[in-house]
Amino acid sequence: MHIPDGFLDVKTVVSTYALSSAAGVASLSRVRKKLEDEKAPLLGVLAAFIFAAQMVNFPVLNGTSGHLIGGLLAALLVGPWAGFFVIASVLFVQAIGFQDGGIAAFGANVFNMAVIGTIGAYWIFVGVKRLTRSYWVSAAVAAWAGVFLASIACALELWASGHVALDLVLPAMAGVHAVIGIGEAVITVGVVRAIAAVRPDVLPDFVSVSPQEVAAHEA
Questions:
Q1: Which runs of E-coded beta strand occur in 39-180?
Q2: Which residue has better confidence, 213 or 36?
Q3: Buried b vs exposed e over 107-124: b needs ≥16 C-beta within 10 Å?
Q4: Could you state, in order of their start, the residue ranges of all structural domains in the chain?
Q5: Has residue 198 got a pLDDT over 60?
Q6: Tally of CA atoms within 13 A in the half-sphere of 58 that contains its CB
């Protein structure tokens, strides 16, 4: 899903940079108000973990592979606004140091994975949790949806740039990432469960988990 340079036209580059920059400004204002001092070091640790985890690929379909994006995972640990900066910083290091995603396409990659895949996935988590009252179901659904919706945005950006027909790129991207999203959900829930077992106070939303869920987790 990391778009390299040369695949987006000028209008798409400019518009996605503008959208990502606006999200960054909005996130910064909220992070300054809400991020607790003791959680600040967690941002760097989390970014390093997600960066390393993204290097591990798992097989998907027909020789393709996927890897963790980590957007919802970051949002659940430090909140969606700080999570935006965690994922954006990972994408920046990947683009600069490893040519994994282009500089011109950086705005699009941030929009797809840090805006949709992190902030958007978090609000899906909140909405599903209100309906199901299950932390774990909500986390799984939101992690999957963040990846799936980000892939659709990526397909639309490639189509809008005139490089590929929508009827080709949309089903290809959405189909593969629908499966990759399952891996994202499994990893996200697994990591959050492990953290909840030892440090539930690290998870801002975990305090509202029902006693039945806690009992089931501890059993």
A1: 57-59, 65-67
A2: 36
A3: bbbbbbbbbbbbbbbbeb
A4: 10-218
A5: yes
A6: 15
Percent over 90 (pLDDT), the chain: 54
Please check whether residue 60 is in contact with residue 48, taking contact to mean a CB–CB distance below 8 angstroms: no
Angle at 102 between CA 53 and CA 46, to 5 degrees: 25
> Of 136, 128, 142, 147, which Cα lies nearest the Cα of 189?
136
Amino acid at 81: W
Q: How big is the CA angle at 96 (ends 92 and 100), to the nearest 5 degrees?
A: 80
Give me the helix-helix angle, 71-78 and 166-198, nearest 10°: 40
The residues that bridge with 59 in the sheet, in sequence order, are 65
pLDDT one-digit tens code per residue, 1-54: 788 898 999 999 999 999 999 999 999 988 877 666 656 677 888 889 898 887
The crossing angle, in degrees rounded to 10, of helices 166-198 and 211-218 is: 80
CA dihedral 204, 205, 207, 212 (to 10 degrees): -150
Rounded distance between C-alpha atoms, residue 166 and residue 196, angstroms:
42
Query: Coil, strand, or helix at residue 79?
Result: coil
CATH, domain 10-218, list 2.60.40.10, 1.10.10.10, 3.90.1150.10, 1.10.1760.20: 1.10.1760.20
Lowest average pLDDT, out of 42-46, 131-135, 178-182, goes to 42-46
Locate 24 and state its tokens: 């960054």
Contact by Cβ (8 Å): 115, 72: no
